[in-house]
Amino acid sequence: MGVKDSTVDFDVDAEPWVADVLGQIQTALDGVRVPDMSELTVEGFIGLTGPDSSELTSVSTSGSMLDPTHAVWDVDDKADTYVTTETDACRHIQQAIQQLVRLGHIDIARVHSSANGKPVDVTPTVGE
Predict the structure, then answer these.
(1) pLDDT score of 99 more than 70
(2) What highest taxon heads this organism's lineage (predicted)?
(3) What separation, in Å, do the N-terminal and C-terminal C-alpha atoms of the chain show?
(4) What value does the mean pLDDT of the chain take?
C-alpha cells in the first residue's frame, strides 16, 4: 500500500508536526470505512496498511512517518535524540492520534450497521 504525504495545512492547536500527522491520517482514512477504530494500528492510521489489516510483517516503514529519518521528526526545538527509532516515532504518532481525537480533528462521521442493527464498521472524518 503506497503512502503519499499530505500537502494540506491544518490549523491545529498543537505542535506543527502534529498537523503533519493529521494530514497523513486524512490522506489515509478520511471517508474510508474502518472495521474497528480501536483496533486500527498506527500503520493503518498513516496509510501503510489498509484499515482492516493487522498484518505488519511485510510492511516497509522506509520513508514513512515511522521512519526516524522522516522530515516530520526534524523539529527545531527538540533534541536530536527526540526520535531515533521506529518505536519512538510510533509512540509519538500514537500520542498525536490521541491528541487529535481529543481536539475533535478525528471523529466518527457515520456508524454503519447490519440489517439487524448491529454496528459493523465506521466512517471517520479527519481534519474537520
Answers:
(1) yes
(2) Archaea
(3) 25
(4) 86
**DSSP track, 70-123:** SGGG--TTS-TTSS-SHHHHHHHHHHHHHHHHHTTSEEEEEEEE-TTS-EEEEE
Backbone torsion region of residue 72, taken as left when φ is above 0, otherwise alpha when ψ lies between -120 and 50, otherwise beta: alpha
CA distance 86 to 92: 10
Question: Distance (Å, rounded) from C-alpha 73 to C-alpha 68?
Answer: 7
For residue 55, which phi and psi values (nearest 5 degrees)?
-80, 115
Q: Is the pTM of this model over 0.70?
A: yes
List Cα–Cα distances, 19 to 10, 42, 60, 80, 87, in angstroms: 6, 16, 23, 20, 20
Residues recorded for the chain: 128
Q: Which residues pair with 27 in a beta bridge?
A: none
Task: Give the closest residue to 86 by CA, choosing from 68, 70, 103, 99.
Answer: 68
Angle at the Cα of 52 (from 10 to 84), degrees rounded to 5?
55
